[in-house]
């Protein structure tokens, strides 16, 4: 790893810079510019297969060392990567509703997680059926470092590497033993995290072996334990369920449509008592959507509990001086739990027979609703991941050239078991709501006196929270068990050499091949397949797989060297041919240029073609129920709001929507499914930058990189809102064909509700455009008081939106209206988080002297703007205009757009209330000491100043986006003993 130029030192600092704010973002110590460093053997850098003697590349690479991870105060690789400046909104254990499987993802450039490739030791990690990697399946304790390529790399690695590559490098060459322990909890005395690990290794001249065992546990944090998450929308009354209020209309006191009026049990009254015939209606009154909604927020997790047990072992043996054998085995077991409010019982199954013993109205009730809060929904996840790998590598001489090669075989699989509680059998529940009576022995019995139903227990929905007994629950409850499995076989071979010499230096080449087979399936609960589990989306099995064969070639050509104004000028070219069994073949190439005019400066530029093959789920997913959130354009606006436009009202009337219809179900009943005819997504990315390390300031380096990524032929499905708008606002028949409405009231007693919407996968001509600038400033210096380092890393997003860099209201290639630039905006209702920061920055100050070290980090999350229409709707509905001031701009307007005859049409002065989420800065600190008995002790605090997340009125199922930190300080201590 050497060169005689000054800029190489700067490049190394940039390449090994660790970007995670709470990972202290410190750089690995780089080899000194000495004669000894010049003897370092050639290595492979993430983003290239050519082995080289330095780390200089035309693409920016970030690195996080094991020390950085230890300094972070975090216990999972997903949490560490979540906080790097280039990561976007991604799932983690801070997402409860919308992440019931407990997965952790990385989402470079905010392009989506399945467009970020994850490698372990340079080879693919098994992905789930949707093509994304669950980072919780990779044990943190086994990691030596993480390298992050912030550019496309399909020509080197193949599919998925459209927006970047994460290469996780495990520990090796460890000699000795080490045990470590970590313990921490929040200032609220909850959310405890602990981890323990032991590493044993030996290394000789011919062989090495390592074993690591680790255990991590994280305890939950409930929504009700933080003020901001204890209500559906913070700052608004907790029980508003109409006009934008997010409280649930399905409550523990029920709704019962009787003679055109929706009745509910008065919470101050007893209602119908369990095990007794009910005849009095005196305890019931009309339901008020402004005061009677159910506050579901307190019983949800805002941090899921989880436990992880992992075992990692690797070994190597030098068979000869030029032939080495390596092997590795990794097992990871993760259990986690998500919890949601009790199952809302509503819709078609909620028909209460007139002869039901608990029905005080003694008339058939259709479209009733009830929530048995004594039985919350629990989603347990058990995830087992195995990885086996073996490889040979070596070198040989031929025609006066040294060739290095490797050949590897890797097998990985991932099994997922979902264990659910708090769900009900629809058939049994229907029976329990049918005719019933108290028999001669005083036992509540389903059926009639002439035809009793043995074993059935009548269910009481008229007695409030205390009216439901354990016997009732035992009869109707089921515990669905869903399975998912994915496996991958991967065979690869690579060879690299210096091919021939040009005047400026040697031409280096690498070539290789890869053969891979991926397959998997889902096996839903049989009752779920039959649609017999209330609240568990009906699903049919998914099964499929694909195979591929690939070859690639990479060459690095030195064009000029040691001439006037050119210290070096190198061109790197690579291409990869991929042949898939599903869609055919594709070829993707890359061109990269590095130019050093002097020893202080390096300019770099690259162009990359990329692709993403459709995942198994996108291709073969069975037809599944879904519940997307959307606003029905046919729903009558609240008092004080603008009425429905005449053309929209006419289309709604033609569809059979009654006058005065008000949407009661914010979550639409939809079907999603796969499409085996999908084609791959494609991308083109450009990047250019400069690395500068001035001679006149020793220890200072600066890097500045611009990038642009364009993704086309995107795989996806229409959103429910797009179908609504396309049908009613634009009058396009193709969207109207995708939905049907309930014209009888059977769904929930509200004639006009959408009871079906088809949202299956397809390729869209359009896609996305992401563009931005990364800036890193790194300065190291030494004083009498110790060694210091200051590092500032910034990711600024210029544009994040539709392909073509469209403005809002312009027409996309698919004929829809562009939403414009999403950078600096919070996407409303995004279940995995909707943050799209324009600026995300991490600053680190580290200090060390003798046996002591310390660090202070600051993570800056730029301001965001969100729509604030929910607040306005509630304020108007409650006739409390002062509530509008919760929005920072409650009376805002903008130019609106709609489609007319397929073309954009302006709608001047469209009401558009917005709210600004102010910039947020989190500070973390740590102090460490190395003892004389060879142990490291550290104490630290995350969120030193107890910074609260900004209130987000449009966030999904919460009042703050899960990509902010959970409120409260977090204190921790760690101990490592080396032997």
From TrEMBL:
UniProt topology in membrane: Multi-pass membrane protein
Organism name: Rheinheimera tilapiae
Keyword Transmembrane: yes
Coiled coil location: none
Highest taxon of the lineage: Bacteria
Official protein name in the record: TonB-dependent receptor domain-containing protein
Record keywords: Cell outer membrane, Membrane, Receptor, Signal, TonB box, Transmembrane, Transmembrane beta strand, Transport
Source species taxonomy: Bacteria, Pseudomonadati, Pseudomonadota, Gammaproteobacteria, Chromatiales
Location in the cell: Cell outer membrane
